[in-house]
Amino acid sequence: MSQPDPILSDDEDDKRLMALVAEGDDDALRMIVHRHHARLVGYIRGEVGSQATAEELAMEVFIRLHRAASRWRPDAKLSTYLIHIAHNLVLNEWRRRGRKPTTALEFAAEPGDQRHDSARRVTELDEAFQRAIAQLPTEQRTAILLVVQQELPYEDIAGIMGVPVSTAKTWIHRARSRLRELLKDFYGPA
Amino acid sequence: MDNFNPQTFDKNLAAALSSGREISVPGFADRVIVAVRLERRRQTVIRWSSLVTAVAACVVTVLTLQSPSEESLNRQTVALVAREESSPLADLLGIADDLSLLTPVVDKKSSIVDVLATPGS
User: Fold this and answer.
1) Would the CB atoms of B35 and A59 count as touching at under 8 Å?
2) B17 with A149: Cβ contact below 8 A
3) What is the mean pLDDT of residues A16-23?
């Protein structure tokens, strides 16, 4: 019943699956998780810097999605909705910690991390970017992650962050400027 | 690199971030399903306990409404006490009635006795 429909696009199939989730179909939920979890964990990991926390928060995102399935209205893409929930959870996480992760150490590969081996292979420039992104103000980092990493349109970023589109654009512009400043050793003075 | 090239910068930024764009976690979907089922069970327990609590509250309310008020209880108590105090008198009256039955016939005026007792008869 909850097999993927080859004719439908992912968005349309998400809507169909969400209707099934609302009826208590666990297989439909499993398919949604399977389709979206990697990107969600990637986004949260970029925000919080910890694989374990990213997985924990991603799990909470799907639990909340399941809880809200009967009330969900397909006004936006499900992937955007999931990142919206994730963003709120990330904000809660920062409030709980009383700070945001700003040290490069927190962004380094953790022991047991599946990406540990591949992390060793990242270039010096990639690492410099990671460190620089970690130093950005919270809203600028979120905005740059959403636009560059998640490739979301400005309208969706504004919706997720609860700000006007112009504000989201300003944050992204400032983030780029700040990154260029932080990476002046690679790109020359801004 | 003295000449800043925005396109190169954007390309490098995208490359740096794209490495973490998707992090697939084996078995993650199964873990989510387990967590969701636990959550569902927890919700069921909460729903039932809420229902039981509501029913219990209703029962207590009904019992409270059906039981006599404090004022009514006071009135009943006063009536009972008053009844207790008046009972000795009632008992006495009862005994008096019983005594009247036991009164000797000789003590009562009788025409026969009167005739016999009349001097010279």
Assistant:
1) yes
2) yes
3) 93
Contacts of B32 (CB under 8 A, 6+ apart): A29, A30, A33, A37, A59, A62, A63
How distant is the Cα of B32 from the closest Cα of chain A, in angstroms?
Answer: 6
Sign of the torsion angle spanned by Cα atoms A167, A168, A169, A175:
positive
* Numbered ranges of CATH 1.10.10.10 in chain A: 104-190
Residue from A21, A59, A120, A179 to probe the interface with B (highest B Cβ count within 10 Å): A59
B91-118 residue pLDDT tens: 656 655 565 556 655 555 666 666 666 6
Inter-chain residue contact B23 with A38, CB threshold 8 Å: yes
Per the model's pLDDT, the better-predicted residue between B67 and A117 turns out to be B67
User: Residues of chain A with pLDDT > 90: what percent?
Assistant: 56
Q: What type of residue is A49? A: G
- Identify the residue among A25, A62, A79 best suited for mutation to test binding to B, counting B beta carbons within 10 A and taking the highest: A62
CA distance A83 to chain B (A): 13
CB contact under 8 A, B29 and A37: yes
**Is the full-model pTM beyond 0.80?**
no
Q: What is the CA radius of gyration of chain A?
A: 18
CATH number of A104-190: 1.10.10.10
CATH topology of domain A1-101: Rna Polymerase Sigma Factor; Chain: A (1.10.1740)
How much is the pLDDT for A58? Answer: 96
Whether residues A37 and B28 touch (CB distance < 8 A) is answered with yes
pLDDT in tens, A32-47: 999 999 999 999 998 8
Q: Are the C-beta atoms of residues A43 and A145 closer than 8 Å to each other?
A: yes
pLDDT tops 90 at residue B86? no
Handedness of CA A34, A37, A110, B10 (dihedral sign): positive
